[in-house]
Amino acid sequence: MSASAAILDTPSETPSLRQQAVLDAVLSLIVEGGDPLTMDAVARRASCSKETLYKWFGDRDGLLTATVRWQASRVHAGRTEIDALDAATLRKNLRDFAESWLSVIASPTSVALNRIAVAHAGSRKSNLGAIVLANGRFAIGERVKPVLEAGRAAGLLAFDDTEAAFRTFFGLVGRDIQIRLLLGDALPLDAADIGREAAHAVAQFLALYGRATP
Amino acid sequence: MSASAAILDTPSETPSLRQQAVLDAVLSLIVEGGDPLTMDAVARRASCSKETLYKWFGDRDGLLTATVRWQASRVHAGRTEIDALDAATLRKNLRDFAESWLSVIASPTSVALNRIAVAHAGSRKSNLGAIVLANGRFAIGERVKPVLEAGRAAGLLAFDDTEAAFRTFFGLVGRDIQIRLLLGDALPLDAADIGREAAHAVAQFLALYGRATP
DNA sequence: GCCGAACCGTACCGTACAGTACGGCTTAGC
DNA sequence: GCTAAGCCGTACTGTACGGTACGGTTCGGC
């Protein structure tokens, strides 16, 4: 990768406003799908020259990487405060996580980006898959696990392995949704559905890991 | 698609031995991954001419479709006999399903094929994703659901919606495994792990849906 | 042994797309 | 107002790959 592209090598660097506009153009093209994502199409959509694309992002891969990071940087929600954890708060927290996670994986942007990352993971080189995982599955894990542990500390949950408990939570929430969407299944899922699914998943999770309140 | 390629248009047509060899060559190339799958590479690996490929499979897409179908045709296991269903048999049946499903989604072939299908689902045209779904997620569903219903008939399980119950089963078994593998996470998962995970998932499923044995 | 069909290997064509070069426009600094 | 930097638009290059054409070989039917 050329030295001039180093500006986006590290995730900490924030793209300039103009660069953000370019990345948004990439996102819109990705979400629209259909025709494959070409540098020409990006330049046209973003009203910039290809030369600029290459100067800023190095190559096509760098552009993709920057796009994935850019999208990821917008997803991170604020930390949850966990004090005074009673049963109702725990349930609400978990339901919020479930809902927001379902909203993410059901969004066209997430589906399209995951498709790119999955396809990319097949051809060795770069690490789009790793970035998506780090900002998706693992990021939500790191945010949910403290809540689970707080629930355990408050005597509301019982488990040995936090990671295992989270993976159960993840499975109960996600079920077959993500793979079906990735494979192109037209799974209708509006906000009401998501709310219902989230509540159902949390109820099941609590049935498995909840401690009977004394 | 040209008329001469109609031989593989319908899933019922079985490819000839030579054609099977070609499809196996495609599979081996897909699993190896790395460089993108080109018709030249297939012809070379299968020791056949590109002309033959196009005569048999119509175009690149037809070849991919035939490959996915060919792999799918090998996965279908025999039907499970469900009579005399006691708690132990039910548990064993479910564990078998869970194990075989985990073995499938953890296999390099499945991962590689799913990657192709996911990538394909982004660009409209053909239906690789649909084929994979039909022979994966939905096929296992159609095989598990009768077992669940037999369990309910025997008074061992309690649920209203068979589909919902199966989706819970699916989620408990799969958890984050498939998406992590698709995204290139090196998730170590040997036979022993699979057995343990399957048993764990079934135990959780029974905890949720099992009826206390009288 | 002869014929035709199927098929292999190779050469070939057209196109799409990554990456580069460059002329012209805009804007900032002085 | 002049210069230089940054960027847009467009034109260009190289190449990889999907798809086609064709001569040579094998093989089954007669």
Automatic annotation (TrEMBL), chains A, B:
Keyword terms of this UniProt record: DNA-binding
Taxonomy of the source species: Bacteria, Pseudomonadati, Pseudomonadota, Alphaproteobacteria, Hyphomicrobiales
GO molecular function term, any single one: DNA-binding transcription factor activity
Species, as recorded: Methylorubrum salsuginis
Residue ranges of DNA binding: 38-57
Domain (HTH tetR-type) ranges: 16-75
Protein name: Transcriptional regulator, TetR family
InterPro entries hit by this protein: Homeodomain-like_sf, HTH-type_TetR-like_transc_reg, HTH_TetR, Tet_transcr_reg_TetR-rel_C_sf, TetR_C_Proteobacteria
